[in-house]
Write a structure and sequence with these properties.
Aldo/keto diketogulonate reductase; 8-stranded parallel β-sheet; NAD(P)_OxRdtase_dom_sf; EC 1.1.1.274; 284 residues; NADP_OxRdtase_dom; 2,5-didehydrogluconate reductase activity; two-stranded antiparallel ribbon; alpha/beta; binds NADP nicotinamide-adenine-dinucleotide phosphate
Length: 284
């Protein structure tokens, strides 16, 4: 591949003007001094979108990495998420304030409701509270995670405000075509969690290895390139600096129709990593 064949990674734009880079960085399980060093390395390696959550117990780790990195605060999009146990108004306010204190920040760029927990049925109140905190300037953009159209429709009906982002499990084995189409139709950026289906088996799948070998790249690179072409934002996690670089270097080759057909055939009703049906999954 010559450099003239390498395209730039595209940005994505949401209904509220939020602009995100095409690939972000997951931080689940990155904690403590070592975790902070790994996140600092990701920033040095070019990542500008960080994904954290109250339930990852690592907001302090993320805040320290941002401070210690050579990257300007305003150039980084920092994400956190509201857990199910704090959906009511007063607890949601305190939780966001605690996130700010733990990260040592004046504002958080993107705050998501982590799961709808519809059996508790308080996610509309949580959404109204995030909008209030946005008004106060503590949050720049707000969105959701693991929401289905029926949940998002209720938020919009109650507040007239559509989430900027919906972060869902999405990878070649679980492509979520209908949900992705709904997000697209409403100007909602779809972020993909476990975009590599947590590494492991994915990078050994013969169908993926065959596409990678054909292009002289790694299995992870073809999976992430598939995400970019599909139009979601993958947020791969890696504690390994060389993999962090590899995972951003995905635009130096192009798929042909045979590759696209191979990926389309991977989508499966059994492809989800675990039983995570948002209608019933309780995550507090
Ligand atoms: N909203 C939600 O409900 C939700 C749920 C789950 C996850 N998330 C978010 O999504 C992020 C990503 O998902 P994930 O952490 O579950 O899984 P993932 O990003 O799909 O996979 C991470 C695994 O892949 C390995 N890996 C990364 N790059 C690799 C490469 N180039 N070659 C080989 N292996 C590689 C990593 O190993 P090393 O680290 O050892 O390099 C790690 O074991 C999370 O960190 C979190 O921020 C959100």
């Amino acid at each position: 591949m010559t450099s003239s064949e390498t395209q730039a990674l595209p940005d994505r734009k949401a209904n509220d003007g939020l602009i995100l880079p095409a690939i972000g960085f997951g931080t689940y399980k990155l904690r403590g001094f070592e975790g902070s060093k790994a996140i600092e390395s990701a920033l040095d390696n070019g990542y500008r979108l960080l994904d954290s959550a109250v339930n990852y117990d690592n907001e302090g780790t993320v805040g320290a990495a941002v401070k210690n990195s050579g990257v300007a605060r305003e150039d980084i999009i920092i994400t956190s998420k509201l857990p199910g146990r704090y959906h009511n108004h007063d607890q949601a306010v305190e939780t966001v304030e605690e996130s700010l204190l733990r990260m040592d920040l004046d504002y958080i760029d993107l705050y998501l409701i982590h799961w709808p927990n519809p059996l508790e049925d308080q996610y509309v109140e949580a959404w109204e509270t995030l909008l209030e905190l946005k008004e106060r300037g503590l949050l720049r953009h707000v969105g959701v995670s693991n929401f289905l159209p029926e949940h998002i429709d209720r938020l919009v009906k109650a507040t007239n405000v559509t989430p900027a982002v919906n972060q869902i499990q999405l990878h070649p084995y679980w492509q979520q075509r209908e949900l992705k189409a709904y997000d697209d139709e409403h100007g909602i950026i779809t972020e993909a969690w476990s975009p590599l289906r947590r590494g492991g088996e994915t990078v050994k799948d013969p169908a993926i290895v065959a596409v990678a070998d054909k292009h002289g790249v790694t299995p992870t690179q073809v999976v992430l390139r598939w995400h970019v072409e599909y139009g979601d934002i993958p947020i791969p996690k890696s504690a390994t600096p060389s993999r962090q670089l590899e995972n951003l270097d995905v635009m130096g080759f192009a798929f042909d129709d045979e590759d696209r057909a191979a990926f389309a055939a991977m989508d499966s009703p059994d492809g989800s990593r675990g039983d995570f049906d948002p209608r019933s999954h309780q995550e507090m």
